[in-house]
Design a protein that fits this description.
Layout: E1 2-5, H1 12-30, E2 33-42, E3 45-55, E4 58-70, E5 73-83, E6 95-99, E7 103-106, H2 114-130, E8 135-140, H3 157-162, E9 171-183, E10 187-198, E11 203-213, H4 224-227, H5 230-238, H6 242-255, E12 259-261, E13 263-265, E14 268-271, E15 283-287, E16 295-301, E17 306-310, E18 324-329
Helix pairs in contact: 2-5
């Protein structure tokens, strides 16, 4: 059960969010808490005694059982699943994805058309990821993930002539590695290393390996695979089953709560994630670091950013700047 009191005109919806936040925090604490403290003394006299209570799990899913409003007070009762991993029925978040140029490695003993085959495989991977329900494909580029700083881009020829392909603060980059190797049989082996990187540097990997018999030489010679539908058929055969690996990568990322690092802006706190990432005006942010658990509400929501303020009015922006938060949807 959580409670939220209306403090003034126009505060009714915010008070409901505070009630949901109160219930979520109570549920998280019921799932286990880490309690620590510190005591300050001066010449043997205790001058302050502070207890820090931090939840050991997080809300994996929740359902509002009932809510009522009476006497300027919201009362919300919830059912929540608390744990330390992705929930079994996690909501799909929106991943704003840029597909970067693949890294291609071809065995010297592989057929001469293997490079063109790798291009076909890369194209099919992008087509597949674009169909995933968690993905909003922001763009496809033939350039690698930028390694230079923003300042260094001012002297980068590609950036100056073609524009920057740097990940936005709310984005993810898809970077596949495609390895083609000739093995005994003779067979052609495809090894995929599917990598999803976040703008904050976090990354997840998924691997896939498959071997298929090499096509027999035709009257047109070894280059026949380049100009006939056989190349598409070979790519399809090599990629058979890879959709499960690709889906697993994005399912895992889609099950993770939207998270971001807070920065101070104009007396409020800002995060580089917003409506495009699935946030709504009813989203609540929970601190996700080693400090005590605190909650912030959305006061301004844009496409790719949001401004927040802490529910505890005694804590200013400086208390939160630089900290990571994870978002939970309250339903309004």
């Amino acid at each position: 059960m959580g409670f939220g009191t209306v403090t003034g005109a126009g505060d009714r919806d915010a008070a409901r969010r505070r009630a949901v936040a109160d219930a979520l925090l109570a549920a998280a604490l019921a799932g286990g808490a880490d309690v620590s403290g510190r005591t300050a003394t001066n010449r043997g006299i205790v001058t302050s005694d502070v207890a820090i209570v931090r939840t050991v799990g997080r809300i994996l899913s929740h359902r509002i059982l009932s809510e009522s409003f009476s006497g300027q007070v919201w009362r919300v009762r919830i059912e929540a699943l608390v744990g330390d991993g992705p929930g079994p029925l996690c909501p799909i978040r929106t991943l704003v994805v840029t597909a970067y140029a693949p890294r291609v490695e071809v065995d010297p003993h592989a057929p001469e058309w293997s490079g063109e085959l790798a291009d076909t495989i890369a194209r099919r991977l992008v087509q597949r990821l674009a169909r995933h329900p968690a993905v909003s494909l922001a763009g496809v580029t033939d350039r690698p993930v930028p390694r230079t700083s923003r300042r260094g881009e001012a002297f980068d020829y590609d950036v100056l002539t073609r524009g920057s392909v740097r990940l936005p603060g709310n984005g993810h980059g898809f970077v596949p590695t495609i390895r083609l190797t000739r093995t005994a049989g003779p067979k052609l082996e495809l090894e995929l290393e599917l990598k999803l990187v976040g703008a904050d540097g976090t990354a997840s990997l998924q691997h896939f390996i498959r071997r298929v018999p090499l096509p027999r030489p035709s009257l047109a010679g070894g280059l026949s695979v380049l100009v006939q539908p056989q190349r598409e058929a070979l790519a399809a055969a090599l990629l058979d089953g890879s959709d499960r690996a690709l889906d697993a990568l994005f399912d895992r990322a889609g099950c993770e709560p939207v998270s971001a690092r807070l920065s101070s802006a104009g007396g409020l706190l800002e995060v580089p994630v917003g409506r495009a990432n699935g946030l709504t005006q009813g989203s609540l942010a929970f601190t996700a670091d080693g400090g005590s658990t605190q909650i912030l509400e959305v006061v301004e929501l844009r496409g790719s950013s949001a401004r927040l303020r802490p529910l505890d009015p005694t804590l200013g922006p400086s208390h939160f700047a630089g900290r990571r938060v994870q978002f939970v949807e309250t339903g309004r």
